[in-house]
């Protein structure tokens, strides 16, 4: 019985940790690809697309090509992309950034799906995307490219 109660508490805590539409961007400090500390909660004032990915994830790498194209074609005063890798090997992450020609902000939380950031966001598959408005409020999970383009153009 005790194991069941503990499991229930673990599941309940995990479920409440997941960010929901209407929640604020969490205050999480992560290291960037240029070795700077970045706090996610400071990224307000424009639409922010947070993209969880990993170097070993084939769909993520294909998605990177689309995000690079989108980033290169958008006004960065209104819209920004932030990649968060859950790679356990930072050297593979850095090589993927170069190979995929990613110029937008890249952060890493190198504990895989057990990473604090992945748990807080509720990431259970890759890639996973979270769109925040200018006030830092989550407005969409896994928005389509069409939804992003419509938002950016308005």
How many domains would you count in the coordinates? Answer: 1
Arithmetic mean of pLDDT: 88
CATH class: Alpha Beta
CATH superfamily: Glutaredoxin
Q: Quick one: overall form?
A: globular
Subcellular location: Cell envelope
Protein name: Peroxiredoxin
Main location: other
Pfam families: AhpC-TSA
Structural notes for this entry:
The chain has 154 residues and is of the alpha/beta class. It has one domain: Glutaredoxin, CATH 3.40.30. The protein is 36% helix and 22% strand. The protein has a 7-stranded mixed sheet with strand order 2-1-5-4-3-6-7. Strand 3, helix 2 (58-72) and strand 4 (79-85) form a beta-alpha-beta unit. The longest helix is centred in the first third of the chain and has 16 residues, at 2-17. The radius of gyration is 16 Å and the shape is globular. The chain starts with a helix and ends with a helix. Residues 4-16 have low confidence and may be disordered. This is Peroxiredoxin. One of its GO terms (biological process) is cytochrome complex assembly. Residues 1-17 form the signal peptide.
Provide key terms for this protein.
154 residues; alpha/beta; Glutaredoxin; 7 strands; antioxidant activity; Peroxiredoxin; redox-active center
